[in-house]
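Morning, I've got a small favour to ask if you have a moment. I'm working through a protein record and want to make sense of it properly. The fold is given in discrete form, as structure tokens running alongside the sequence. Can you walk me through what the tokens say about the fold? Thanks so much in advance, here it is:
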Amino acid sequence: MSSPGLFDAFRSNGAPTYYDSNKTPFMADILESGLIYAFVIVAFSFFIILPGIRGKERIFVLIRVTVTLFIGGVIMLTNFGYEWEVAEAKNVRTKYKAGSAGEITADIAVYMGLRGINVTLKASDGGKPYFNETINYNEHFDWRWEQGRLGFGIFAGRFNQEFRAAQFRGTPLPIIWIAEYFTFDGEGIRWGRHYRQAGWYAHIMMWLALPLWVLTIVLFFILLKYGAYFLMMTGGVMVIANILWATIRNVNELVIPFSAEHKLEFHFGPSFYLNLITGLLCIILGVVIWVLDLRFPELVTNFFGVDPLQDDSFVQGGSIETVENKNGIEMQGVENGHTAPARGSSRPSRQAAAAEDDDDDDDEIYEPPVFEPPPAPKNTKFEKRKSRGLTQRLQKPRRRPPPPVPGNQADDDDPDDLYSNTRQFSGVFDNNIPSSSTNPDQVHINMGYRH
């Protein structure tokens, strides 16, 4: 026999190393706790930077971040949560294990989700008067996603296989009795099949709501109107998940009796109502944002902290022209008469609407574009009279009469006639050109000099 060495640590009488049991929480869902922790960390990260934001924008950011993360957290928690339906029974007198005549008084609860059920069993007195152990169980049975064949073989569904495995492990009888109700699949008793189908379609809707929620966040930084549309779509999909679960889950109500006084009667749980209320809240918020975007665009753009010139800006051909409106704010227009509206508003301007109506008229297609000059600043009556007189005085020396029509004798006496030299030149031609009988070789043109 070898001497004790390093590899003999934690061994007793040469037996393999003994490890203590890995204790896990029986009533706490680790996945749900992780999701809550993740969203809390993200929210806390945003709340840290709030003191660096000035004015009302700090309150706006707080509201936006809180509501946005709350919606995302509800989508993930209700998707993976096990409280869509719950049933509880207190102080139930029941048998404990097969092959034992002893009975216990325990609290039994069933928590049902989109992917399976959790069954808890906790003895009211600890079970010590009958058994030398602490009775505190939580068993999970999963039905994702195929129904499988009848029976409990290798081709059966996942729920049936886990049920048979729990029997071999010696799981307490109350838990086995509850799980057995979900293994029936015939004669109109198909609670397991119906709940599985309801969870399948409802979880598809919840996964659809997640990308819609992400697109809603993105669109609220680009186009507020479409962000409101996608927020309503997110809420609508969440409500559809509730409708699918409530309509497909069963035909016959599931009631599991333990005695005449103690029965497990299922009803909608916190996850169902939380998802329903959040979905309705998303629809209402989407409608409110959409209406405010139509009626009060400046208020909505200030709340979301977006550029008021980036929403619904459009250019329909031609080059862009920058003008100033009545308030002195620069706006962009195009050569075809369209004027870009304010980006924080989803409504086109009146000029753009009028231009679109004009484009529909076939008679005005080839008309030249008409630009509306920016309105001049309002001046007093004295300033208008003074500027008008100054303009007339400055422009008067530069004005000239229009050129006269050639051959008009009434303009010969006009000293400012621009064509006077031309007429003199034509008179020279008239005096020196002989008649048609004259020999062409003897014609001389008198232009102030002679050859």
